[in-house]
Amino acid sequence: MKYLSEYRNLEATKKVLDEIHKITTCEWNIMEICGGQTHGLVKNGILELLPEKVRMIHGPGCPVCVTPLNLIDKAIELLEQGVIVCSFGDMIRVPGSKKSLLEAKALGGDLRILYSPIEAVSIAKQNPDKEVVFFAVGFETTAPANALSVLHAEKEGVSNYSILASHVLVPPAMEAILDDKFCTINAFLGAGHVCAIMGTQEYVPLVNKYKIPIVITGFEPLDLVQGIYLAIKQLEEGKYKLENQYSRIVKTEGNIAAINVIQKIFEIGTREWRGIGEIPNSGYVIKEAYRKYDAEAKFNISYINVPENANCIAGEILRGLKKPNQCEQFGKTCKPSNPLGAPMVSSEGACAAYYHFSNNLIK
Ligand code: SF4
Fold this sequence. Notes:
iron; globular; 11 strands; alpha/beta; binds iron/sulfur cluster; 18% strand; 2 domains; iron ion binding; five-stranded parallel beta sheet; Rossmann fold
């Protein structure tokens, strides 16, 4: 399969790993932003094959993990009010303050698990006497489809459809991490799929302000080791620049059509990140002109505000300050069958990656 099997080639991956060992002379901390990259590193055993001096730090790029507890409670409140709530499958087992969406469904809530928000608009058309809300969560990658669903509802005259939106953005999160006084990160692997939408240019100011290498990187084993190699090469040579390892997918300008759809519906605003708190200008909020499609405004649920689980250190893990196996609950009271926090249940969560794929990392 073009662009996939060749990036899973063992020999090619080993060769790059050998090169990494040859060029590494100093200790380097590299953060992979995306949870998909974390899973790729752990699942393929790459963490154990890197030089001891290279430490990968797992970043906040798991959309399910960073969605605040408040928002899950808001979605559950809507279910309990009789609203049809539609969601991607990865959100439904994430714990809210009292229960998950799946538990609310078991108690009678009308929760629909969908692959696309456009399906939710169809459900709204088929149920004109009910309100339908799509739980629109994610980074820049899912924003175009969610924005498109609003445009589709408008075009079709569907007034009983809205979205409960929590879209967060990668560059402000990187800046918040770099501004943390405990930050030890020397370089970043940028999230390839986010850049496929947004392009690469919004990372240039970060490179220049913090004098830090950023390598836009893909998700297959060869992508990951190439990204790490490029980052270490820059660090060892005392350079800092933006590089694009994932050029087979990521273009400098991004996907202009997708960006235009996002900008029609959303504007930049402050967003809360689970376990981290509010970060200014770190997400998308629905523009005033499309406020009637904003479920938070439509159903007056903004008052819901609950504290995070005090036993879950997801915030520290998402900021790269701790590894999952440094959490006291890891593998004991917190397991995929009984998650205390989103990183243990999300398919991109760092805790789930450690739990499922690496016995060595659990010890
Ligand atoms: S192991 Fe569980 S409790 Fe600990 S940080 Fe991960 S999700 Fe939270």
